[in-house]
Design goal:
Elements: H1 2-33, H2 45-49, E1 55-58, E2 73-75, H3 76-81, E3 89-91, E4 95-99, E5 107-108, E6 111-116, E7 121-129, E8 136-143, H4 149-166, E9 173-180, H5 193-197, E10 214-220, H6 223-232, H7 245-254, H8 256-259, E11 266-273, E12 298-299, E13 302-303, H9 314-323, E14 326-333, H10 337-344, E15 350-355, H11 362-374, E16 377-383, E17 391-398, E18 405-407, E19 410-411, E20 419-428, E21 441-447, E22 454-460, H12 465-470, H13 472-475, H14 485-492, E23 514-517, E24 520-523, E25 531-532, E26 538-539, E27 545-546, E28 549-550, E29 555-558, E30 561-564, E31 568-569, E32 575-576, E33 594-597, E34 600-603, H15 622-625, H16 627-635, H17 643-650, E35 654-657, E36 668-674, E37 679-686, E38 694-697, E39 701-702, H18 705-738, E40 762-769, E41 779-786
Parallel strand pairs: 6-22, 8-9, 8-11, 11-14, 14-15, 35-38
Antiparallel strand pairs: 1-2, 1-3, 4-6, 5-7, 7-20, 9-10, 12-13, 16-19, 16-21, 17-20, 18-19, 21-22, 23-24, 25-26, 27-28, 29-30, 31-32, 33-34, 36-37, 37-38, 37-39, 40-41
Helix pairs in contact: 4-6, 4-11, 7-9, 16-17
The structure holds 2-acetamido-2-deoxy-beta-D-glucopyranose (NAG) (5 copies).
One 2-acetamido-2-deoxy-beta-D-glucopyranose binds near residues 225 and 228.
Length: about 800
Amino acid sequence: MTSWLRKYTNFILHRKLLIALLIVSISISRTVADNTCASPLISTCEECLRRGPDCGWCIQEDFLDGAHVSQRCDSASSLVRKGCREEFIESHRVKVEVDATISSTQVAPRRISAQLGPGSAASFVVEVQQLDRYPVDLYYLVDVSASMKDNLERLDNVGLALSHQMREHTSDFRVGFGSFVDKPVTPYISVHPTKIINPCSEFDQQCRPAHGFIHVLPITKNMTEFTRVVQQQTISGNMDTPEAGFDAMLQAIVCQKDIGWRAEAKHLLLVMTDQPSHLALDSKLAGIVVPHDGRCHLEDNTYTQTTNMEHPTMGQLADALLRNSIYSILAVDIAQYKWYEDLLDLLPGAFLGRLLPKATNLKDLVVDAYKKLLSEVELEVTVDHRHAHRFWVNVTTICPPGSRPTGSNKCSNVKSMQKVFFNITVGMTSCPSKGLEDDDVAISVQPVGFNESVAVTIKQACSCQCSQKGGCLDDADDTIAGTACNDISENSGQVSTDVCRPSEGSGKICNGRGTCVCGECVCDRSNLGTIYGKFCEMDDFSCPYEEGLLCGGHGQCTLGECVCQIGWTGESCGCLVSTETCQLSDGLLCSGRGRCVCGRCMCDDPQYSGEFCEKCPTCYTACQAHWMCVDCHLTNGLGRGTAEQCNKTCAPVVGYVDDITELTNALGKQCLYPSADRCHYRFHIGVEPGSPQLQISRQPECLSSQRYFVTFLSVFLLTVVLGLGILAVLRILLRRRERPQPDNQNQPLDTGKKDLSYAPTTNEKTVTYRRDHNVERSVEMHVQVPKMPLDDMWQ
Ligand SMILES: *[C@@H]1O[C@H](CO)[C@@H](O)[C@H](O)[C@H]1NC(C)=O
Ligand SMILES: *[C@@H]1O[C@H](CO)[C@@H](O)[C@H](O)[C@H]1NC(C)=O
Ligand SMILES: *[C@@H]1O[C@H](CO)[C@@H](O)[C@H](O)[C@H]1NC(C)=O
Ligand SMILES: *[C@@H]1O[C@H](CO)[C@@H](O)[C@H](O)[C@H]1NC(C)=O
Ligand SMILES: *[C@@H]1O[C@H](CO)[C@@H](O)[C@H](O)[C@H]1NC(C)=O
């Protein structure tokens, strides 16, 4: 006994060891496979999701009971394999939503929102179309330092010619004018008192004082005005070679209102100069150290901060150009071409041209620039600078056929009305530092020079939904981290589960058929079917069926009762509300003899039937209905009806006629009444008012008793003879079947017919009786049961 016990315990121990080994090997293989997500160091949902785009966190309460909390973090597929239901997995699925409600003429879509988690990326396509003709605003920004004297003198003529030439490309061309020299501080200008007022005094010429930027003429249609203004311009002077070109440009760009840029127009900023421009940090030499703020500082059309702020950086300038959708045309002296060429790549939508002496080619230069700028479609994508380091953007361009892509995000030679597509992929590398998780990241997708752009908003999925809503995962201690919200919030009162109750605060949470997770019902699973609905109130199994369909296929099963669609009614929504199907063409509902229930007639009188209660096989015919009254009269109230009845209802409607055939052609119906005296009385049911309704013939048609007997006898004899004949035929047929067939006794199959006389006459059975478990001593018995001879009953 003891040895047996030991053997058994050994076996059990062995089995346990085996299972343990198996579990270890499985978990090792799993951690190897999904090691990006699973880690024993993870204790919160946030930490888990930060490990990668594929990681998920299981918030199901009873998930892997008792296991370490880090087990809740794994790839979504592994979690499902481990028994976590999909509704309980927090993960960051990439979502892209396109808002198509904003109308646009050139750029579509105008607004996109996307959700990204660390390591994930989203793609979307932006479509840009250049229109046929645009209104055009051209702002002349002219360097009026002494060396530009020749150019300036020619400008009024050129301006007029240019406006003529631009009519080919636009029907609405407007111009404006502004001038610049340099920051009016030493060492850029001479501060000798005479030279401040007239910088050209040493050349015996009249000049005006140097200035940073003066806005002279807002954008206007009036070319006469433009010519007048340009003619009034006088030159100025300064000391050093570079001028404050970029400083003035920035003001001309950002002072939208003062300059008068129109929203619907293409904006051209023409900068004419024969010198390079100062760059951002140059002004430190003059003791100006405040960085430029990128804003407009015009007062009385004069740039006021020129002596206080540094020159803008190239980045600020590029950003301003892009945001205000301005193309810049740099018409520079040939000697400075190289200097500007190096900067060209930094300025989006910029065109650089060589200005010949006396600005002779200015007109062609501007027209060429306009044509070139409008034949290029270029996209600039800018990520909010606070988050830019955590995002990457990749643009692929699909240019229209016929134009070659010249860069990754630019198409050239695009004709008007052609479409350019940009496939933009935005990726997020990591989550922001703490406190910035809730910030949405703005990405601007701006086609250069267009007045429309795409606003992309990226939602950073770096925290868990559940903790966002109620903080329950954050507040939970390690052992219960991951429990569904309602349990924790019921204790801490942070998230009300009332939102999961069907009638605001009362009723069972999710109708008792689900769990409240982060303010939303997650419905239970049932073997019977699916439970769904905002409060798990609907399902597909607990309601009556009609013709094999739940709620007849015409309703929703809500809390065990069918909620029928409009037009349907009944417990299982199998009934049409309309009674159309109960009406014949006469408009009477069920022929006036019933109610319409569920689109079918229910007849009040059980004698009636048919789809519209129109049939009555057992009803009296019209003739039979009047038999009683006829009888009353013939028997004087002693026949079928009681005397009282006869007097009351029959007396006034009955009359007699001598010759019924007279009434044959009258309206109504001819009938027969068979009376008890073996006579037929003809009567007529009339419909004419005035005359009695029933007219009974005085002459009955009676069978004489002799004729009656003969008829009866012949029918009787005919019946007897026919019956005897049938019996005789049956007898002969049966006899033939009973006759034995001795020839075929040994080959019953030859006959091809089944002959029952060859069946065995006894049944034999062998029965073995067993007295105990000893097999050798059992007793076998043969029992013979005689069968009843097959032909017995025929004899
Ligand atoms: C255009 O400007 C001139 C001179 O500045 C002025 O006399 C004329 O009235 C203006 N025309 C219009 C249409 O404003
Ligand atoms: C952009 O320009 C187009 C074409 O001129 C115009 O139809 C549209 O209204 C402008 N959009 C905005 C926002 O100004
Ligand atoms: C951008 O797309 C190109 C072409 O598909 C690809 O070669 C490149 O690796 C992508 N860059 C990033 C950062 O995904
Ligand atoms: C856009 O680019 C992404 C990433 O390269 C690619 O997966 C996607 O299919 C592209 N979409 C279209 C419409 O070309
Ligand atoms: C029926 O009417 C006849 C004649 O008007 C009358 O004699 C008889 O009493 C009435 N019978 C009954 C039961 O009212």
